[in-house]
Amino acid sequence: MIPWLALSEPFPPVTSALETPNGLLAASADLTVERLLQAYPHGIFPWYSEDEPVLWWSPDPRMVLFTGDLKISRSFAKTLRNSMRNTALEIRLDSDFSSVIRACAAPRDTDAGTWITDSVCNAYSELHRRGLAHSIETWINGRLAGGLYGVALGKMFYGESMFSRAPDASKIALTALVHLLKIEQVPVIDCQQKTRHLASLGAREIPRKEFVAHLETSVRAAPVDWAAYSSRALNALLAGY
Q1: Alpha-carbon torsion 80, 148, 168, 185, what sign?
Q2: DSSP string for 18-83
Q3: Which of 26, 74, 90, 218 is most exposed, with the fewest beta carbons within 10 Å of its own?
Q4: Spatial distance between the Cα atoms of 223 and 181, rounded to a whole number of angstroms
Q5: All structural domains of the chain
Q6: pLDDT tens per residue, range 27-40
Q7: What is the spatial order of strands in the sheet that 54-57 belongs to?
């Protein structure tokens, strides 16, 4: 059994999360910015379907991408070089967060449902308005072609979801984000749970204890000045391949 959290009730310790299903910690009726800001510093995130209560998770092990470990295949390196020469392609930060999260919420070809419900969109959009959630976007010919969004606290970035409407568009955005984070000395992107796609990009699992220990220092660090990147194209972040 997992606890049901009343409106102002704190989360239980992450060590009390279930082994099966891995990481299920608690349930609640609320998904507010305040609740999210209680959750993320402790390595807790929401993941649930439209017909479920809000379910809170902290899996062990935890999938992360160390920014120095990003894998770039030869074919994708060629794509990046071509992208640098493509004047129709532009990398932007936070130019259309709402469209990014809505695109991530759209059902995929292999799944008719989505975990990014209206309540999720509303809560993370409010985080964005507070400067705590960000989108990095690939635009082609003035149209949003792909991107991702996540939560940023201190020197920590928690990846949430990504989408593509053009080949490699989300990978291009992720590559730009990784280089931005390396510049800002942010060493880790939280990827939450293991997927083959993330593993192919260099993400790996670490013990939850190690992940939480990292959060204790990174979340308290001076935050990235995200606004400094939002007023200009960021194509230069793709250089070097």
Answers
A1: positive
A2: -TTTTTEEEEES---HHHHHHHGGGT-EE---TTSPEEEE--SSEEEEEGGG----HHHHHHHHHH
A3: 74
A4: 11
A5: 4-59 (3.30.70.3550), 63-238 (3.40.630.70)
A6: 999 899 999 999 99
A7: 4-5, 24-28, 54-57, 45-46
